[in-house]
Every structure is written in structure tokens, then in C-alpha cells.
Automatic annotation (TrEMBL):
One of its GO terms (molecular function) is transferase activity. This is Glutamyl-tRNA(Gln) amidotransferase subunit A. It is an enzyme of class 6 (ligase). Belongs to the amidase family. GatA subfamily. The keyword Nucleotide-binding applies. InterPro entries: Amidase, Amidase_CS, Amidase_dom, AS_sf, GatA. It comes from Marinobacter algicola DG893.
Length: 485
């Protein structure tokens, strides 16, 4: 059963071949065994999962089952879960049990899905390797057969590794600068970052509020569509959520791609992209041509400014968002504070890890009175130019395609001593967040036995088109079905 997709598992449950309790037991058994090696979960909620599975079976017996009823999945540990530990990968929240559900959590609960637990992540979603988690690094299931411990990408590395290793068929994730797409690429799974505002951020622990977006991770595009059907929609509790109709994302999956106009941003096919990676991505694009798409080169002239702009804006927003973690209300508090100031300073010094502290310092500096115009304001202007590049490109083409990452999964520890090399993991993904548009990563081949991701980028609210393009590609390729040993 562990190899089946959400769509297939749903059909198995519907046919009565297996109950949700049986299915949940199978997945939990596998998860507890295999995850000793991978550390893709921070919390496994066995008791709650079995109770939910029972409830799902009753629901089905009463003739009230829907597609997700009784299907197991997991949440990234950034989504608040009522009564269940939510750590965001940090010591700061190691003891935090939210008294409420995120809207995304609530939506899956209402759909009857069975959450097996919370997946590992970089601390407060800051990172590209899931090595900065207070709960230890996650290992990529790919590479293990060669005796190598490679990173799964990040920050949603736990979700990506768990889906790749068949510990769950699907998991939620979030993406601020690449955190869904980069781990999806490195683990050989399919991930979608929706348009900013498409999925509610209520109860999703904030990193950089103008960039953060919840999204989906599964092995097939179809399952991503099934997840987005549950997650997307207006939420009055999130002031940046957009009130706009949600289509059935599965309805257009099988539309033919004949006439689809694909643009290849020339700035995304240079620099540190290896020849072997480029060959895999170009091979995938040739498949699209066989499916009737046309391909032309386009330009995103401000592409090389994206990382610099992001690493001003994201830390600036993080420094403001993370000021709430001060030991006063919830989360970690230092032992025996002398006075209020001592409590604030020691709580924050002891509760946050190195990368989080680095970003709080950078962000605070960029926002300080004398430097605001030189850094933050300038970065916002650059952000507007980057957005305009995409708007211009979408006047000529329907989607853009590129590699998701410049290289496949790297060895653990390889980039931890130099933050800038880690930041460069996001060269092809970060501009998309600055513009607020949707993008996917789809398995598109292998280099040295490691998965390669194809990034498909679309105009605002074109999730259905991206899912359609990914699904049709997955009908003629089997990269997404390959299983790590
Ligand atoms: N949160 C993300 O999207 C990850 C990105 N690599 C960052 O460290 O900011």
C-alpha cells in the first residue's frame, strides 16, 4: 500500500479492500521503522491518527466519505495543530502546544484526512538543507544506497524525504524562497508553491510574511491537485488571503498541451548549472515539445538581483516576526532570569540557533533608521522590477521552465560553514516568491543517481495550468515513480 498515491489509496478505501485503521497502522509501522534512519518527522501522533482513522471508517460506514476520508498524510511542523506539539524546528518552540488549528490544518481535518505527525524542517524555515533543525538533520533517502548521507533540501526537507521514502503519500509544506520546490527537486517528488494569497497563512508560523506561502508535496501532480483542492481558498482570518473562486484542480489535469507556449529564461540556464543537470532539464523540455508545446527563449533581466533583494527583505520581515519570541508568553524561557531584560536576552540567545540569529541581526540592521532607505527601500524597488520581468514574460508565453536547483542533493555538512553557498541553492526559485507567482518542481531525471527537478513557473493564479502541464508530463515519463533503495 505504501507505494500508492493519494488518489489510489482513496479508491482502495472506497472499494472496502482496506479500512482506514488498517491503512494507518501499516503506514505508522513503516514510519516508525524507517524514520530512525531519516529523521523526517519531529512528532509522530500515533494515538490521534488511529482515533481519526476510526472516525473516518465510521464516516464511510455512514455513507458520508469524501475523497480524503481516511487517507494518511503529514503536516510540516510549521502549521499549528490544536493540542499537538508545533515546534517550527526550534528550541524556542520545543514545548509549544498550540490551543488552535491553522486554517490549513482545519481544512484537512474537515476533509477527514488522517495526520500521522509533524515533519522536520530548518529552524523557522530558514535554510535549504534541513540541517538547522533543533531536532537534528533529516537525511535524503536518495544517496543512502551509495553509503552517502545527503541533505533532502529545505526548509521542507522532512516532508520531501518522507514522501520520497513512501512514509506518507503526501505532506504539507511552505515556501518563502524555495522551501517547497528545492526539497521536492532534491528528493525526486512533486511540489507546488501556489500564488501568494491562495492558501491561508493563519496559524502557519510566520517567517517573512510577504513571501511565505503554504503548499503541497506528493509524488504525483494529481495528488498535488487533490491537496490544493483542500488547502486553497479565502480566509477572513488572513488579511492577505485572496477572495477568488477555487477551481477543482483535478478537472483540467488531462487537457492536451498542444499549443502550450513555453519560455526558457536565458538567465536560468547559465552560471553554476552543471552540464549534466542542464541535459536532464532540456530532455524534459523536449518531452513537452513532443506533447505539442512550443519553446522559445525569454529574458528576466533582473534575475541576478533576486538573491540580494530577498536576503534584505526576508530577514527584515523575520526580525519583526520573531520579536514575539521573548519568553514572556509562550515557548522557551531561560532559567532564573534576573530581571526582564535578562529574560529577553538570555531567552533569545539560548532559544534561537545560529542561522536564525544571523537573519535577525541582518534584518534589524537593514531596518534601522540610518540604513532603511539604503537597504530595505532599495530592495523593495528591486522586487518591483523582478515582478515586472515576469509580467512581461507572461505576455509572450504561458509558462516558464527552468531547472529547480543548480545541482542535485549535496552531502550533509558541505555547505553549513558558508551561509552564502547555502543561499545560492535558491537562485532559480527565489524570484518567484518576490513576484508572488506560483511554481512547481517536477521530477525530470537523474544525475549520478540523484533526482533532478524541472521548475514550471506560471502567471498569477495559474495553478491549474501548472498542474495540468506536470500531470501530462507524468503520463509520458516515470521519473516521479522511481523509488530510493
Ligand atoms: N524558507 C525558504 O523558502 C528557504 C530559503 N532557502 C531560506 O532560507 O530563506
Amino acid at each position: 500500500m505504501h507505494n500508492k498515491s493519494v488518489a489510489e489509496l482513496s479508491r482502495e478505501l472506497e472499494s472496502g479492500k482496506i479500512s482506514s485503521v488498517e491503512l494507518t497502522r501499516q503506514f505508522l509501522g513503516r514510519l516508525k521503522k524507517e524514520d530512525e534512519q531519516l529523521n523526517s518527522f519531529i512528532t509522530i501522533t500515533e494515538e490521534q491518527a488511529l482515533a481519526d482513522a476510526h472516525a473516518a471508517d465510521e464516516q464511510r460506514a455512514a455513507g458520508k466519505a469524501t475523497l480524503w476520508t481516511g487517507v494518511p498524510f503529514a503536516h510540516k511542523d510549521i502549521f499549528c495543530t490544536n493540542g499537538v506539539s508545533t515546534t517550527c524546528g526550534s528550541k524556542m518552540l520545543a514545548n509549544f502546544v498550540p490551543p488552535y488549528d491553522a486554517t490549513v490544518t482545519e481544512n484537512f481535518r474537515k476533509a477527514g484526512a488522517v495526520c500521522l505527525g509533524k515533519t522536520n524542517m530548518d529552524e523557522f524555515a530558514m535554510g535549504s538543507s534541513t540541517e538547522s533543525s533543533y531536532f537534528g538533520a533529516t537525511t535524503n533517502p536518495w544517496g543512502l544506497s551509495q553509503g552517502e548521507k545527503r541533505v533532502p533540501g529545505g526548509s521542507s526537507g522532512g516532508s520531501a524525504a518522507a514522501v520520497a521514502a513512501r512514509l506518507v503519500p503526501a505532506a504539507t509544506a511552505t515556501d518563502t524562497g524555495g522551501s517547497i520546490r528545492q526539497p521536492a527537486a532534491l528528493c525526486g517528488v512533486t511540489g507546488l508553491k501556489p500564488t501568494y494569497g491562495r492558501v491561508s497563512r493563519y496559524g502557519m508560523i510566520a517567517f517573512a510574511s510577504s513571501l511565505d506561502q503554504g503548499g503541497t508535496m506528493a509524488r504525483t501532480a494529481e495528488d498535488n491537485a487533490l491537496m490544493l483542492n483542500v488547502m486553497a481558498g479565502f480566509d477572513p482570518k488572513d488579511s492577505t488571503s485572496i477572495d477568488r473562486d477555487v477551481p477543482d484542480y483535478t478537472a483540467t489535469l488531462t487537457e492536451p498541451l498542444k499549443g502550450l507556449r513555453i519560455g526558457l529564461p536565458k538567465e536560468y540556464f547559465t552560471g553554476n548549472l552543471s552540464a549534466a543537470m542542464e541535459e536532464q532539464v532540456r530532455g524534459a523540455i523536449r518531452e513537452y515539445e513532443k506533447l505539442g508545446a512550443t519553446v522559445k527563449e525569454v529574458s528576466l533581466p533582473h534575475a541576478d538581483l533576486a538573491i540580494a533583494a530577498y536576503y534584505v527583505i526576508a530577514p527584515a520581515e523575520a526580525s519583526a516576526n520573531l520579536s514575539r519570541f521573548d519568553g514572556a508568553r509562550y515557548g522557551y524561557r531561560c532559567e532564573d532570569p534576573k530581571d526582564l531584560l535578562d529574560m529577553y536576552t538570555r531567552t533569545r540567545a539560548e532559544g534561537f540557533g545560529t542561522e536564525v540569529k544571523r537573519r535577525i541581526l541582518v534584518g534589524t540592521y537593514a531596518l534601522s533608521a540610518g540604513y532603511f532607505d539604503a537597504y530595505y527601500l532599495k530592495a523593495q524597488k528591486v522586487r518591483r522590477l523582478i515582478q515586472q520581468d515576469f509580467i512581461n514574460a507572461f505576455k509572450e508565453v504561458d509558462v516558464l521552465m527552468s531547472p529547480t536547483t543548480p545541482s542535485p542533493a549535496f552531502i550533509q555538512g558541505e555547505k553549513t560553514s558558508d551561509p552564502v553557498t547555502m543561499y545560492l541553492e535558491d537562485v532559480f526559485t527565489i524570484a518567484i516568491n518576490l513576484a508572488g507567482i506560483p511554481a512547481m518542481s517536477v521530477p525530470a531525471g537523474f544525475v549520478d543517481g540523484l533526482p533532478v527537478g524541472l521548475q514550471i513557473i506560471g502567471d498569477y493564479f495559474s495553478e491549474a495550468r501548472l498542474l495540468n502541464a506536470a500531470h501530462q508530463f507524468q503520463q509520458v515519463t516515470d521519473w516521479h515513480q522511481r523509488e530510493p533503495q
